[in-house]
Amino acid sequence: MATLSFSTFAASLGKQDLAPVYVLAGKEAWLRREAIGRILHRAYGSAQGGPGLWECSTRGTTPEAIIAAASTGSLFGDRRVVVLRDDGDLFARRQDDFFPLVESAARSKRLVLVVAPGASWRSNLRLAKKCAEVGAVVDCAPLEDAAAQEWVAARLRAAGLDAERSVPARLVENRGADLFALAGEVEKIAAFKNATPGGAPARVSAAEVDALLGPARAGEVWDLTSALVRRDARRALVLLARLLQGGMVVPQLTAAVFGDQRRLWTIKHMAGRGASDAEIAAAARTKPFVVGRLRPLANQVTFSRLQRNMEALLAAERLAKGSSLADHLVAERLVFDLCRA
Prior knowledge:
Elements: H1 6-13, E1 21-25, H2 29-44, E2 53-57, H3 63-70, E3 80-86, H4 90-93, H5 95-107, E4 111-117, H6 126-134, E5 136-139, H7 145-158, E6 161-163, H8 167-175, H9 179-193, E7 202-204, H10 206-213, H11 218-229, H12 233-245, H13 250-272, H14 277-284, H15 288-299, H16 303-322, H17 327-340
Parallel strand pairs: 1-4, 1-5, 2-3, 3-4, 6-7
Helix pairs in contact: 1-2, 3-5, 5-6, 7-8, 7-9, 8-10, 9-13, 11-12, 11-13, 12-17, 13-14, 13-15, 13-16, 14-15, 16-17
């Protein structure tokens, strides 16, 4: 089977059964994650998977161990989906050893093999040709700017936003074509406008987007987030005052800190599933060496606390817009709420 565009792959899932093998070729982490979620939804009815799902990194293991685990069925279902994140390029380096796994998937009616190559997918390799023959290679390469703008426009609509025509281009020009970064900006805009999917579309102007993108304050906001995670209210209040004095308003502040909370959630979630620092970095919109530094901070906070934090941030943003309280009072109350969460 020839390499499928992402849209063709997505459309095919609703029309036919799963292929025995999927290779997610390309380094756009968002498309890879989306492809895995769609495959799992087709197999189990949920993008989170179900009985029989096994995800692993090839780093620190052997083909023999992977094949043995893939051959082990679930006691609770007859579908076995194996997701291999080939961080160490093991799939290509030991292709002869993985050949039996691909052939087993091709013969089986219950095994689906999903491979996310760590390096560029070399289609001339014998194993690559076999995967293409029995399954599908999905193009997950980074999008060109024009395609990224179309993606942003669709994302804005799905988030319940009615944006001016120039907004997608502004976002791509400012943040590049990294889909995780762009998705984060759409989330910030949606939080700022109180937009909800399926609700009445919230109008977004280019001027509002420019104000939200604003000057680069990511480092200062991250310092504030770190202090909040550590429940260091004194340090958080000092950083908060500095940001407010610099012209940041509460809706901008809550949107930025909300994005940081989502980043910590991503690091914690993906690390727990065995993802590499490179994959986590792409998902968290940062660099691999930064992920190593942030893991301890992510380990200090629970998923339930992150959820409470995000709820408190949204409540503070609504309070700032719907009450007569001064920004600094709303923000200071938020700091104490987050340090107690």
